[in-house]
Design a protein that fits this description.
Blueprint lengths: L19 E7 L9 E9 L5 E6 L2 E2 L5 E3 L4 E3 L3 E2 L2 E6 L7 E4 L4 E7 L12 H11 L3 H15 L14 E7 L4 E7 L2 E7 L2 E4 L11 E2 L3 H7 L11 H5 L2 H6 L2 H12 L9 H8 L30 E11 L2 E6 L11 E3 L22 H12 L5 H21 L7 H22 L9 H14 L6
Helix pairs in contact: 1-2, 8-10, 9-10
Length: about 450
């Protein structure tokens, strides 16, 4: 057989980058207390509101149907209570946790295979697995079963069409898995210490199990000589978008930060700070530098996406502690706790939709973030000064076995809101920095489109 060219074809490259993310997990001896630590930054279009919500458990009668993003499928008899971080216009979720302490985050994978126009989206698969699984291993099996039954596909973009394959990190208090998929094919590996995924196939030939057809397809197309030569990452990765998304650099960065757990056990605060990482540059500026874990949008072509929501979870045998920003850019947002046993979201949290709404937590923060981009780095330093005492107190108190009541959730959310409001007042006093005409025009267009005023 004549070997096919190693040049990759990235289907959908003409649409550029609409969504990149970073997801990570650490378990066992790499974490303080041996808990499972999980974190994800969801990076999507700058004005795509991502709401945090609690979906109650439910019982469903025979013949019930669940309407997913692009397909309707049979509902199961019982679904579990879940916390999800969800683009406002989608059924599925970018990340979430359920009442059994199962946590999942998914990632877009850009491969040499063309994504399908219809099917379950990766976000659908994530939400369905959380609603139907009481363990990480069960969630892994649920995703695989749904994938093989209905396939994956469908538009996952907001303003522009966007199609991709999917990877997942799945964990609970006892174990964690990485699952990566192409069409209905898949491979998975059980994680023994830590792992991260960043929009690139992370498994090579080190997977524990793979589906029939995955290796055979690669051999058939000349991407490897035989099964022994098969390397999932090398065979299936689509090079152009993967390179444009700085996937390898982000993966390397998150792995290096997680590796510190081999010397000093990782904590919830460590994971929050990893999500805020801007790389090693001391002179980082959002209008100049990209390819970082905390993602900032800057132009309509390559850097057209940003972190629009963040989640950190600490999962132990006694339960899960969940923290969210409910807002863009964790570097400019405080985390607050949600989803205790019998509790959900803060009573004063208001979700958002398309277009600016001053009542919405996401839009309230977003308006100030856009002002902060013009007053960097003073805005960043001030937010760090304000949020640090809150997060140190919050994590030490709640992870010291203090029950997470509705009153406690409301109290920390009020403190987070007070920090954002105080920060917003101080932003108006900060001198503007020079960011360039194109950068300002880029953000002004979004502001006009969404009715965001008085931010520059």
């Amino acid at each position: 057989m004549r070997a096919a060219s190693r040049v990759s074809v990235d289907h959908g490259f003409e649409r550029r980058l609409t969504a990149v993310c970073d997801t990570m997990v650490a378990i066992g001896e790499t974490t303080r207390g041996g808990v499972t630590l999980f974190a994800k930054n969801s990076d999507r279009e700058p004005d795509e509101v991502q709401n945090v919500e609690v979906v109650p458990a439910g019982c469903h009668g025979p013949g019930s149907i669940v309407r997913c993003s692009r397909l309707s499928i049979p509902q199961v008899e019982r679904t579990y209570r879940v916390l999800i971080c969800r683009p406002f216009h989608m059924f599925g979720a970018e990340m979430g946790v359920n009442e059994h302490g199962v946590v999942i985050g998914n990632e877009a994978l850009f491969t040499r295979e063309k994504p399908a126009k219809t099917g379950l989206t990766g976000m659908d698969l994530l939400r369905l697995a959380l609603e139907r699984s009481d363990s990480a291993r069960g969630a892994l099996a649920t995703i695989i079963d749904l994938l093989e039954t209905y396939g994956q596909g469908g538009n996952c973009g907001y303003r522009k069409p966007f199609f991709y394959m999917n990877g997942f990190l799945v964990a609970d208090a006892r174990e964690a898995y990485v699952l990566e998929t192409v069409h209905s094919w898949w491979a998975w590996k059980k994680i023994d210490s830590f792992w991260s995924i960043s929009n690139i196939i992370s498994l090579e030939n080190d997977f524990d199990e793979c589906s029939p057809g995955l290796v055979e397809n690669a051999v058939k197309k000349g991407w490897c000589r035989n099964a022994k030569d098969f390397n999932f990452r090398k065979c299936y990765t689509g090079c152009f978008i993967t390179a444009g998304a700085a996937s390898r650099a982000r993966e390397r960065c998150s792995r290096e930060l997680l590796q510190r757990g081999e010397r000093h056990p990782l904590t919830t605060l460590d994971f929050m700070n990893i999500l805020r990482h801007h790389g090693v540059r001391e002179d980082f500026r959002p209008h100049r530098h990209g390819g970082t874990l905390c993602m900032h949008a800057a132009d309509p072509f390559i850097r057209r996406n940003q972190t629009v929501g963040s989640l950190v979870a600490s999962i132990g045998e006694s339960g899960a502690g969940c923290y969210v920003t409910g807002a863009s850019n964790p570097c400019l947002s405080p985390f607050f706790p949600v989803f205790g046993e019998g509790t959900g979201m803060p009573s004063e949290y208001v979700s958002g939709e398309a277009g600016y709404d001053e009542r919405s937590w996401w839009w309230k923060c977003e308006r100030l973030h856009r002002r902060a981009l013009q007053t960097w780095p003073a805005a960043l330093a001030e937010m760090e000064r304000l949020r640090r005492p809150l997060e140190e107190d919050m994590t030490s108190t709640l992870e010291g076995a203090v029950p997470l009541s509705g009153e406690t959730i409301d109290g920390y959310f009020k403190r987070a809101r007070g920090i954002v409001e105080k920060w917003g007042t101080r932003l108006e006093e900060m001198p503007e920095t020079r960011t360039g005409f194109c950068y300002r025009r880029y953000w002004n267009r979004y502001n006009r489109k969404n009715g965001v005023t008085a931010v520059s």
